[in-house]
Specification:
By secondary structure, this protein is mostly beta strands. Helices cover about 15% and strands about 40% of the residues. Strands 1, 2, 3, 4, 5 and 6 form a six-stranded antiparallel beta sheet that branches. A hairpin with a 2-residue loop joins strand 5 (about 85-95) and strand 6. It starts with 11 loop residues before the first helix and ends in a 15-residue tail after the last strand.
């Protein structure tokens, strides 16, 4: 019988208030199946390396995807081995106050200039 490893999934408790994690892979799109007659929910799961070197799977919300894409682009192949700061905040989710994980937009150093100073 297959055993579920529920510790694989990133939770707010794994983050605390804030943590820097690194993307391990390009991620994968998927869906959460809903009952017939309702729309399935699209999701994006990506593996991240935690500060303690463990790996977790993060189901990124759209807000976090946009924040990271703003700095690293929408091609998630380019996210691999790059850092992102994640934080936890409370918000209402379907009428219930829950802790939610969000990403801060990564700071990307400006490209080196080729100008010379005279």
């Amino acid at each position: 019988m297959p055993e579920l490893d529920l510790d694989l999934w990133l939770t707010p408790e794994d983050i605390g208030e804030e943590a820097v994690v690194y993307f391990n892979d390009k991620g994968e799109k998927g869906v959460i199946a809903k009952p017939e007659g309702t729309d399935d929910i699209p999701v994006f799961n990506i593996s991240v390396k935690m500060p303690d070197a463990t790996n977790k799977i993060w189901t990124m919300n759209k807000t976090s995807q946009r924040a990271v894409a703003k700095a690293y682009g929408t091609n998630t192949d380019l996210w691999i081995n790059r850092p992102v700061t994640v934080f936890v905040t409370e918000q209402m989710v379907r009428g219930t106050l829950k802790k939610v994980i969000y990403a801060k937009t990564p700071e990307v150093p400006p490209a080196a200039t080729t100008e010379t100073v005279a």
